[in-house]
Amino acid sequence: MAPVTIKSVIFDFGGVLIDDPVPGIVRYCADYLKADPDDFRRVCWKYAPEFQKGAVAEDVFWRKICSELGKEQPRSASLWSEAFESAYSEKEDMFALASFLHGNGYKTGLLSDTEKPSVRFFLSKKYDMFDVLVFSCVEGEIKPGKRIYEIALQKIGLRPEETIFIDDKSANIRSAIDMNMNGIVFRNPMQVMMDLRSFSIDIPAGLLGKRYCR
What we know:
Strand content: 5-15%
CATH class of the largest domain: Alpha Beta
């Protein structure tokens, strides 16, 4: 049987294309609310899944958190937007890689568990190297549940075995592999580049370290 040709690479967002924003978001919001960071993290991630699914609006999300922490609700129009923007740090090499793949005949996608305020900020950046965008808050599904991978594959329009998914969480990669996709666990950009080469994707050695073009 002839080997399958890879035609698409799908990237996770936080932890792959950008530095993990969670620590910065926790610090920013805990400072704003004058809450203990550990307490804030515990309560925040208790309600994060429904926020990431788009099941609750941001004001409801904050009402639940502040009620549990005994804090006044934020008066900011979108505290999450402020916190996310403050924590936002691009991995230049990974954006350069996505841009290279997009410009060299591969379909590129983004598959992310993220919240509506974060999506608005992402869209404001006007990135042009992704053919398909799949956000949990739009689809009402989160990883590692298999439905969100099915949605990504439907949008990309290719067979699972023709697609590679890159994520920094092993559980999410295991789900992708269960869907017959190929998976790469992100550790660093050089490792990802070498892993992509193992799928016969020709990536020039000098790509990393180059600033991507929008």
